[in-house]
Amino acid sequence: MAVVNFKNINRLAIPAIIAGIAEPLISLTDIAIIGNVDQDPVEALAAAGIVGSFLSAIIWIVAQTKTAISALVSQHFGANRIHAVKTLVPQAIFFNFLLSLLIYAVTAYFAAAIFSAYNAEGKVLNYAADYYQIRAIGYPLTLVTFALFGVFRGLQNTLWAMKCSLTGAVLNVGLDFMLVYGIEGWIPAMHLEGAAYASVIAQLVMLVMALYFFFKKTPFHLGLSRTINPQMKALLLMSGNLFVRTAALNFAIYLANAYATDYGKNYIAAQSILMNIWLFFSFFIDGYANAGNAMGGRLLGARDYNGLWQLSKKISKYSVIIAVFLIGICALFYEEIGLIFSKEAPVLLLFTSVFWMVLFMQPVNAIAFMFDGIFKGLGEAKYLRNVLLAATFLGFTPALLIGDYFGLKLHAIWIAFFVWMLIRSSALVIKFRRKYLYKET
Length: 441
Hints:
Layout: H1 6-34, H2 41-62, H3 64-78, H4 88-109, H5 111-116, H6 122-135, H7 139-154, H8 159-181, H9 191-217, H10 232-263, H11 265-301, H12 305-332, H13 334-341, H14 345-360, H15 362-377, H16 381-405, H17 410-436
Helix pairs in contact: 1-2, 1-8, 1-9, 1-11, 2-6, 2-10, 2-11, 3-7, 3-10, 3-11, 4-7, 6-9, 7-9, 8-9, 10-11, 10-16, 11-12, 11-14, 11-15, 12-15, 13-14, 14-17, 15-17, 16-17
């Protein structure tokens, strides 16, 4: 039986936090640097925000195989049957690679049409299309890397992913300064395109490092078997449910950004900052969800229901503490945080008028993300799908439409997000209590 204690949880959670914040940190770095360029800073910031949201949407949807791989590997690891998924892992990674190539080919070609659907036009649209066509090159790099991270997490190790992600994030920061602003006499200033190239290079380095750990530290390989692994059906079914779930999640984010863009360039610039900070917080708190994912799958495989119940209580407590800590830091530096990303007074005014709402919902987010992670580890993808569909179309969308009708604009968007998170967190808590509260005895 696995021991559920502070040490074991944090052995997985802390590296997962560092690994998880690397991706949003790359986007935040891009936005902070782009928002302070001399040429069209508001338009460039708006374009980077729109593209960042779309990239996150696509990656979240197709990278759900990472979660499915993690769940299956952890369950077999807990049952001491890791040999049963040895041929599954390379097949899942190859599936991710082919899928990423298809997504790149389609979306890069239709980039202008895609961002027109976000209500982008003029310079914002041109910047967004050019920036995206470079960033999209990173799809195969990122999706293969995420699949490898899922294998690592299933083996109860988040340290390797942390090392890869941290290296990529630090490299991206340095390359951003070099390529966006340029180095006189050495590298020309490349503006928004420089930030895109910096991200792709960082993603390549992360992939190379992940492959090193995969070959040197795991019992798996990349040789494809002619026989489809019996677990492939379960992986694709779980991934399919999570695809639909994540598509609904990103529909909410798309709708929020489309409305903000329609309100004007200052609104979408402020929304870009708010959204990326929200995502940063989400990935930060998600470190404990990743621990819940890995440990939950292992405990289920070992049929340790008491450990599973204790895990839910302890991770809930730790994730809420993290959320409160983040709120405190941001409250102390409330005004200064906006200045990191923009010096434009209209943008900052909109940002500060809404930022408190992003902070207020963090404890609710923490509970939702934590139970998300545990349910993924348990393979409960169908229930997660249904909860997200209900939260998006019966909660978020009506709340946004009502708020927009009354002219609340950015406030309407974040009221809708709060309603969305309340539905998600309450539905997951109720389901978990009903299913596992009495099994643990």
